[in-house]
Amino acid sequence: MALVSPSILAADFANLSAEIDKIKDADFIHVDVMDGVFVPNITFGTPIMEALNKLDTPPLDVHLMIDNPSQYIEKFANLGASILAVHIEAERHLHRLVDRIKSLDVEAFVAVNPHTPVSALEEIIQFVDGVLIMTVNPGFTGQSFIPETAQKIAKLDHLRKEKGLNFRIAVDGGINLKNAQTVVDYGADILIMGAAIFRSENPAEVIQKVKELKK
Ligand code: DX5
Ligand code: ZN
């Protein structure tokens, strides 16, 4: 069974509560925080967490696409993040940051851009709860999956087995019902999906189909 995390970046913010209602059976909600510095787009920050806290939502999976993420960890943890993903490319002291996230009882995920090799994770993966593999260049919803990134999922899954670790593998960007089984076959556990869920006719059905995917 695969886990699914709809990205609210693709939702209609004018109807946030109705949009959340459509995805109530999802395993997480993916919250894409962008600062216009680490990525060429600005989205939202803690106010969206406050809004989500007023609704009945699945656990919040927060993806920080920001420079200097360590400055904001406590804020997002206090607002109920159940996963915090920080980019390896944005943090000099990743080991310390991963430790701090875990000490707040939040799952620590490390995110990697398409150009970052899996080998760059070798000395950190034993400490993390998960790795988020970007399958597009971060910044926008609705982009096309970069097929070459699938190899990284397989490599990471191999490394996980070889080292006897049990961190989770999340994939993010351009995931849809056409490529979902492929990424699951490669070893992905959590499928983050924006446009494929919120811009579909029947988000609940897409979620159900992803959850039923077999490894
Ligand atoms: C991209 C974000 C993704 C994005 C996913 O920078 O990190 O989470 O919102 O959206 P889709 O599935 O539409 O590519
Ligand atoms: Zn994301």
UniProtKB/TrEMBL annotation:
List of residues binding substrate: S7, H63, G139, F140, T141, G142, D172, G173, G174
GO biological process, one term: pentose catabolic process
Cofactor needs: Zn(2+); a divalent metal cation; Fe(2+); Mn(2+)
Catalytic activity: D-ribulose 5-phosphate = D-xylulose 5-phosphate
Enzyme class, first EC level, given as a word: isomerase
Keywords, alphabetical: Carbohydrate metabolism, Cobalt, Isomerase, Manganese, Metal-binding, Zinc
Any single Pfam family the record assigns to this protein: Ribul_P_3_epim
EC number: 5.1.3.1
GO molecular function (one): D-ribulose-phosphate 3-epimerase activity
InterPro entries associated with the record: Aldolase_TIM (IPR013785), Ribul_P_3_epim (IPR026019), Ribul_P_3_epim-like (IPR000056), RibuloseP-bd_barrel (IPR011060)
Annotated a divalent metal cation binding sites: H30, D32, H63, D172
Domain of life of the source: Bacteria
One of the record's GO cellular component terms: cytoplasm
Cofactor note (record): Binds 1 divalent metal cation per subunit.
Family: Belongs to the ribulose-phosphate 3-epimerase family.
Protein role: Catalyzes the reversible epimerization of D-ribulose 5-phosphate to D-xylulose 5-phosphate.
Protein name (database record): Ribulose-phosphate 3-epimerase
Species assigned in the record: Kosmotoga olearia (strain ATCC BAA-1733 / DSM 21960 / TBF 19.5.1)
Underlying gene: rpe
